[in-house]
């Protein structure tokens, strides 16, 4: 047998990832673009009426896009600072016995299926919010964002911790030698040095929140409206796709519009991913010099 | 003086957030255990649902989830490990390797619901597999692929270079070295990575909703082209789409508990195995 054959087979199998990525983009474009025959791009993105099952259907995705953005931003605002605290604690402060508890706990939280968090939002958090704040419904932007925050803490915290760990020991020692306290060292030396890593960790958390489906499907209330308060219901792109695709005939205008929504999500998450990759690369070059 | 005070304050804040996280996780798990425990019985896990899913067990959903895991891993493990071998042993710097790395990284960030759309258009409609165990399993496999690639590559790179050199010195060629020396040395770590991705796949809902999850089916799938019930989708159906949402609450809690035990059990096993492997290496 030719000894090069296994190498070729391995290379061929490895290229499957390339094919999957290409097919993924191809199929979303192929199924999503036909929606532009029904409505113009401007209408699709800027119109605030999403009544896809009416005759004729109103396919304005603006409320869905706003829904995705608000949930993502609110959950990032709540989860990113908390994740940084956890990361700083793990990297700089925690004694090893506590690290051995916190690390697995963080990881297990990351393995909690999103459907379970969504379920908790429905049966525990929603009734509590409803009673506590005297709301019409506890299924709203705030509920979904809080749970989404819980989903992204493990991602952001573990990536942020890695970038704190990568800061050379000597920088900390030099700072202590100048008489700084631990907090001063963290704030003035370690955090600025790890900034690219922290930024990229937050971006990857935001990317995950943007694409997360089950939590928003179950806990966000599902009304395709622009929220005025944090206790208003929203319907992000992901939950619109998950909720509506099942009852949509293959090939209808609504079907293509949902694929277009998927294409938007793909474009946004790919964009965030590429930016975070670029920041990481810049950050690495920093310690090379 | 006040500098010391600020330092003390920061430490307290950091300790509090860490404690909050651990307590939060424990209380979520404890709450789900306490509420799910009352529906737990031998009948619950060994009988299919009946009476419009308001009574009976969830055996079909448990088996369906296991079948989905098996089908997805049957595809994702060989392809993922081969890709890991490519990156660690065969890849040379060049546009192909760079493009492939970019793809793996991007696939890891694709939203799960987008994988669902992809599976619907490629497997269900284009390849005409229909809404089936096969379509849903392959969709989940695409989602798990980047996880397994990264785990295998890391595992293979951790094998000391001396192993390879020793094998070459004995006259072995590249493939013999990879298959008989490097792969066996990395296998435990690769398997651990696979176990962790099983934990991820078993809890996914969005990719299977329109590719093969059944609202209700009394039978266990006997062919790759049958639809299956799955634990995560069953929870969603009962909690949002069922006609007896309040009445089936105990079943919902029970299903959540079974899913949690399955996912957390598998993931904990992976985490423990990995910690043990790292300790042995040191």
Description:
The complex is a heterodimer of chains A (289) and B (282). Chain A is mostly helical and 289 residues long. Helices cover 75% and strands 1% of the residues of chain A. Chain A is built from 14 helices and two strands. Chain A has helices spanning 5-14, 16-32, 35-38, 41-46, 62-93, 96-111, 114-132, 141-165, 169-177, 182-193, 195-211, 214-219, 237-244, 253-288; strands spanning 50-51, 58-59. In chain A, strands 1-2 form a two-stranded antiparallel sheet. In chain A, helix 11 (195-211) runs antiparallel to helix 14 (253-288). Chain A is globular. Chain B has a two-stranded antiparallel sheet. In chain B, strand 1 (49-50) and strand 2 form a beta hairpin. In chain B, helix 4 crosses helix 6 (133-157), helix 6 (133-157) packs across helix 8 (174-202) and helix 7 (161-169) runs antiparallel to helix 8. Chain B is globular and about 70 Å long. The model of chain B has no long low-confidence stretch (mean pLDDT 91). At the A-B interface, helix 1, helix 2, helix 5, helix 6 and helix 7 of A face helix 1, helix 3, helix 4, helix 5 and helix 6 of B.
Strand arrangement within the widest β-sheet of chain A reads 1-2
Q: Structural class of the helix and strand makeup of chain A?
A: mainly alpha
Radius of gyration of chain B: 23 Å
How much β-strand is present in the residues of chain B?
Answer: under 5%
As a percent range, the share of helical residues of chain A equals over 70%
Mean pLDDT of chain B: 91
Key words describing this protein structure:
heterodimer; A: 289 residues; mainly alpha; two-stranded antiparallel ribbon; globular; B: 282 residues; 10 helices; 74% helix
In short:
The complex is a heterodimer of chains A (289) and B (282). Chain A has helices spanning 5-14, 16-32, 35-38, 41-46, 62-93, 96-111, 114-132, 141-165, 169-177, 182-193, 195-211, 214-219, 237-244, 253-288; strands at 50-51, 58-59.
């Amino acid at each position: 047998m030719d000894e090069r054959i296994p190498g070729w087979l391995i290379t061929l199998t490895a290229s499957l990832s390339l094919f999957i990525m290409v097919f993924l983009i191809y199929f979303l474009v192929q199924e999503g673009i036909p929606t532009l025959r029904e409505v113009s791009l401007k209408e699709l993105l800027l119109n605030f009426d999403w009544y896809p099952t009416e005759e004729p259907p109103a396919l304005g995705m603006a409320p869905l896009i706003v829904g995705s953005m608000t949930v993502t931003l609110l959950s990032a605002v709540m989860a990113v600072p908390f994740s940084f605290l956890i990361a700083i604690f793990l990297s700089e402060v925690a004694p090893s016995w506590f690290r051995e508890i916190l690390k697995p706990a963080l990881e297990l939280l990351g393995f909690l299926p999103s459907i379970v968090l969504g379920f908790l939002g429905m049966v525990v958090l929603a009734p509590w919010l409803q009673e506590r704040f005297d709301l019409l419904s506890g299924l709203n932007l705030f509920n979904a964002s809080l749970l989404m925050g819980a989903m992204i803490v493990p991602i952001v915290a573990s990536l942020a911790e890695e970038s704190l760990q990568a800061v050379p020991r000597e920088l900390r020692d030099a700072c202590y030698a100048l008489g700084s306290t631990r907090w001063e060292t963290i704030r003035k030396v370690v955090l600025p040095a790890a900034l690219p890593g922290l930024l990229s960790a937050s971006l990857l958390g935001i990317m995950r929140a943007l694409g997360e489906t089950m939590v928003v499907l179950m806990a966000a209330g599902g009304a395709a409206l622009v929220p005025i308060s944090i206790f208003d219901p929203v319907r992000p792109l992901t939950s619109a796709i998950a909720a509506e695709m099942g009852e949509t005939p293959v090939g209808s205008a609504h079907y293509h519009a949902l694929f277009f929504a998927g294409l938007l999500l793909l474009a946004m998450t790919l964009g965030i991913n590429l930016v975070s990759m670029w920041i990481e690369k810049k950050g690495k070059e920093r310690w090379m010099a | 003086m006040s500098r010391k005070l600020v330092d003390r304050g920061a430490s307290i804040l950091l300790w509090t957030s860490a404690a909050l996280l651990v307590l939060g996780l424990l209380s979520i798990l404890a709450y789900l255990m306490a509420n799910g425990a009352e529906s737990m019985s031998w009948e619950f896990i060994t009988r299919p649902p009946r009476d419009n899913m308001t009574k009976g067990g969830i055996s079909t959903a448990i088996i369906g989830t296991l079948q989905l895991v098996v089908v997805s891993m049957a595809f994702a493990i060989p392809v993922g490990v081969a890709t890991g071998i490519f990156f660690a042993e065969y890849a040379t710097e060049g546009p192909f390797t760079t493009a492939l790395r970019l793809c793996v990284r991007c696939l890891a960030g694709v939203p799960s619901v987008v994988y669902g759309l992809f599976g619907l258009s490629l497997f269900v409609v284009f390849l005409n597999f229909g809404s089936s165990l096969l379509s849903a399993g392959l969709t989940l496999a695409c989602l798990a692929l980047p996880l397994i690639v990264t785990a295998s590559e890391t595992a293979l790179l951790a094998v000391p270079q001396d192993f390879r050199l020793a094998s070459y010195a004995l006259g072995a060629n590249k493939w013999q070295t990879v298959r008989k020396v490097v792969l066996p040395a990395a296998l435990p770590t690769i398997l651990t990575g696979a176990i962790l991705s099983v934990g991820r796949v078993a809890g996914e809902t969005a990719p299977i909703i329109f590719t093969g999850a059944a609202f209700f089916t009394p039978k266990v799938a006997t062919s790759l082209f049958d639809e299956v019930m799955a634990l995560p989708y069953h929870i969603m159906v009962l909690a949002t789409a069922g006609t007896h949402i309040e009445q089936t609450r105990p079943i919902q809690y029970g299903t959540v508990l079974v899913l949690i035990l399955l996912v957390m059990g598998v993931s904990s096993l992976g985490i423990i195995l990995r910690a043990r492997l790292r300790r042995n290496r040191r």
